[in-house]
Amino acid sequence: SRLAEGTPRRSIQLSNIVEKRVFKEDEIISTPKRGRTKKVPEDEDEDEDEDYTPKKSIQKTPTRSRRMSTTTKPSTTPSKAISTPSKGAVAPMTPSQKMKKIRAGELSPSMQQRTDRPMEDSSKSQLQLAREQLHVSVVPTSLPCREKEFENIYAFLEGKIQDQCGGCMYVSGVPGTGKTATVTGVIRTLQRLAKKHELPAFEFLEINGMRLTEPRQAYVQIYKQLTGKTVSWEHAHSLLEKRFTTPAPRRVTTVLLVDELDILCNRRQDVVYNLLDWPTKSAAKLVVVTIANTMDLPERLLMGKVTSRLGLTRLTFQPYTHKQLQEIVTARLGGSQAFKGEAVQLVARKVAAVSGDARRALDICRRSTEIADADSANVKCVTMLHVQQALAEMIASAKVQAIKNCSRLEQIFLQAVAAEVTRTGVEETTFMGVYTQVETIAAFMGAAVPAPGRALRLCAKLGAERLIISEHSRNDLFQKILLNVSADDIHYALRVGEVSS
Amino acid sequence: MLGGNEKEKARALAKVRRFLKARLLRDYTTLHGYKEERSNVRQLLQRTAEMGESNSLLLIGPRGAGKTTLINAVLTDLVDNRSFVENTLIVHLDGNLHTDDRVALKSITLQMRLENAADGKVFGSFAENLAFLLQCLKAGGRQSKSVVFILEEFDLFCAHHNQTLLYNLFDVSQSAQAPICVLGVTCRLDVIELLEKRVKSRFSHRQVFLFPSSGRLEDYLARVEELLSLPENKSLEAASDRLRRLSRIQSEALSLGRNHFDPADGEEIDPPFRKNWNTQLHKMLATQHAQRSLQMLYDFDISEAFLRNFLFRLVAQLRPETPHITADQLRTMANQYECDDKIELLCGLSVLELCLIIAIKHHSEINDRDPFNFEIIFARLSKFAKVSSTMQGMERSIVLKAFEHLRIGELIMPVSVSSSSSGKVQKEFEKHKLALTYGQIQQAVQRYQALPTEVAQWAQSSLI
Predict the structure, then answer these.
(1) Residue A352: φ, ψ to 5°
(2) Of A89, A104, A442, B297, whose Cβ has the fewest other Cβ atoms within 10 Å?
(3) Boundaries of each AAA+ ATPase domain copy (chain B) (predicted)?
(4) Contacts with B, A 301-340, CB within 8 Å
(5) Of B83, B123, B197, which has the smallest distance from its Cβ to A116's Cβ?
(6) Packing angle of the helix pair B126-139, A95-104 (nearest 10 deg)
């Protein structure tokens, strides 16, 4: 929801840093924007319609490129599969004009549409429905087992919005513990309240460190969510600075969610400093919620003045225990009988023992339904066996299998590396030592001894698979070789193979 | 009359040769084995296309195991599925080509035919491209087309800055946006360890391992026979039919159909000739000689890529004089793989250079592979040259030239790691190490043509 009410139009006009052309565009576009805020912002089609109506183009002073397109330039745009409904009325745009529209936020990005309708819900089997419900993207309206954290964040944000002041909060926890889902859930609830006028209206902005190419792009993204326009980061920075530092009547509270905070930290830390400094200004009314993985990030990575501004309002999301994971999965399944109770429990216990990652548990459950689906047409239910197979697929490592499936000489080479490690007692071996071991073992087993050149090829092949770690073959006999699997794995893989054959 | 018959036979043979070569080289879509893995990947892609499910998967296996062929085969299978062809965009990325996120992102924008791309050119900066792509994917939903991202050499994408591309692709696959399927292909078994923890959490941990089925030589022999035998006309037509349907895949980066092996391309091979060929082949493969040679290859490398390479060279030897593949040919070729190239290189050296190598060997044997420089070796060589009748009057500059020749042949390698420090040392005093085993030198001395007896004797013992 990009609301333009907070755009400090007056301050832009006062600006003397801004270039003239950009400044002009700002003024023009911000005018219709204000009217548009009354519309439902989610409705993309309506948004587009408005962009292309002739009425708008009258309002707008014809820029140079527009004039050019109507008079001289023929259309060079290749026909796109996606077309806006009213596109036919306007002359087709050249790519650079289109880019200009994209930068101005007037052209809504869209994906190509399917030719047929997706499958109806009614035609799906129980397992298919369960699989859909178990997908990580299906976020429930209320997250189970995160009620306390929800309360905590809700109280913080509601208080800040009610008081009309700014503040910061730091949320941490390992990946997959429901941080982002909880925070967005809180904000959705608050937005619903604001709509019912039980709470003062507020704006919500959201950036993610990993979605930016560099920390400074944060300014661009924030400004884009405010106005819809894409400008350079310097410009965006100065505009945001102006917006947050100059007092303005009827300024609404802004809630800014910063995901993956550690990526925004660079050596200078100017971006993080700015994001956390604005809430301290009385004019800003900015509430910043930051999310990251490590608990001690502020102390470890950030400078003192940044840590000080981040404050001590912190919240840690603990990894899910097996009981909680079980509850999450059963909540997703609803009343469906697709899963056996003990199957869910097995998944929950296995995942909780490793990482407590909800995504992992849901993915394993989903894989189990696929296995059950493929198993036979009659099976309507996921049993322990299916879950066990899924767990074996998704948690187990394949190193032993890889060793078993090596060729004979590769197996001899691996044995030779292990033997050389045992002989010298050091982890790191050189190719020359290994090659003498290869000669010995091959002679012992009655295999043909490969020439050093071919042994180097074996070494490179095993190195590509990462069964061993080797240097470049340029170093020839002197390259260093490390074993990347444990020697026990090699013995196990080769012994067990001998017995079975 | 007999001449006409010969000509006819030669033509038929040329046809067979061309057919076999083309099948060995350019058959990108036929996969042998891997039933389970194939159906697993196919079902995943099918669900992505039909139900709009978002998924991610890693295809892992050693080099030459048929990972790319598996994907190609699955796509060929899905060509018949109308809803797949019409509702899916395929985006193909390669870690070797798309060396950073910037290049990869441009390629994605082009292949998805987004609004900010036109005629192969992408507008806007890196940051804008990323933002626009994410907006597009976010705007999509169940009604939009599914996108299948194929990331070959997946491990190289992990080396990109912050793993931004991977994070965003996996993140889209785990949130309620346009349905996408991320299919990574790599040969590294431990590739998951390369992912950052938040990227790892978003990855669905489905891994399909492709290991060439080893264990039995019989399977290998059957595979050889299959690759060399001439198929029935009926199966040729079926394959050709399948190929024609490949053009339905609409993707700019994926050029499966282009220059693909087309069995119906050449003229047909007449049935009696085919039958004769196949029986001869079968007989040949049943012999002990042939099996022993193939066992040798199989012991070294079980991947099909290696086998195909070998068979291609074998097929290239088909001549009208030798119209069939014989066990002898097989053996000679296999022995070629066995032999050591460095010994060939040693046999091509002059006697003086070989003498230097022998002197180096003596020095290494006495001092347990200590590094040496020119002066040490020259002293050792002069000791020999003084008493030898053939090597007297050897000038120092000529020996130094020979020493340098050995060095650029990389038979001896400089010890120093940093090249800057070695520049200060005079070239006569620079430390070197020997890049040969003693066994190799021994063999070279034995195989060297017309080696003076004195040198051969000196090679046996360092005492003069």
Answers:
(1) -60, -30
(2) A89
(3) 53-213
(4) none
(5) B83
(6) 80
